[in-house]
Amino acid sequence: MKFQDLLAYQKSFSLAMKIFEITKSFPKEEMYSLTDQIRRSSRSVPANIAEGYRKRVYPKHFHSKLTDSDAENSETQVWLEFALKCSYINENTHSELLTVSNEVGKLINYMILNPQKFGVSI
User: Whose CA is closest to 21, among 4, 38, 33?
Assistant: First the structure.
């Protein structure tokens, strides 16, 4: 299996792309703060999943990369909350993105708790 086949990767990549599209409409003064931060954290989620999966022969690296991914997913949720409070996104958009982010978090945690199902020798 390729890392692109992982559901956590697919959902997190899709979320990062939705965030990219939405942030195109953020104010220019947010370009180097909120816009940059939310794009970076959301893109880091699938990137860390990919790295962790490719390092699955090393159980500690697998775990470390997935916990990094989970942390970046949480950071993305914080930036989404800022975007909502600053009125850059509406409640419906925030709710939709947060729902997907929560699903991603559950998938990442499943991988962390069940590493053997992803080719990690314990």
Answer: 38
The tokens describing 69, both together, are 């991914």
Task: State the helix-helix crossing angle for 36-54 and 91-113, rounded to 10 degrees.
Answer: 20
Within 8 A by CB and 6+ apart from 116, the residues are 122
Cβ(83)–Cβ(89) below 8 Å: yes
φ/ψ of 56, rounded to 5, equals: -65, -15
- CA gap 122, 115 in Å, rounded: 8
Q: Please answer whether residues 25 and 49 qualify as being in contact, where contact means their C-beta atoms are separated by less than 8 angstroms.
A: no
Q: pTM for this one?
A: 0.96
**Count of positions (residues) in the chain:** 122
- How confident is the model over 51-96, as pLDDT tens digits? 999 999 999 999 999 999 999 999 999 999 999 999 999 999 999 9
List the alpha helices (DSSP H) in the chain: 7-23, 36-54, 59-85, 91-113
Rounded to 10 deg, the angle between the 36-54 and 59-85 helix axes is: 160
- Number of other CB atoms surrounding residue 110 within 10 Å: 14
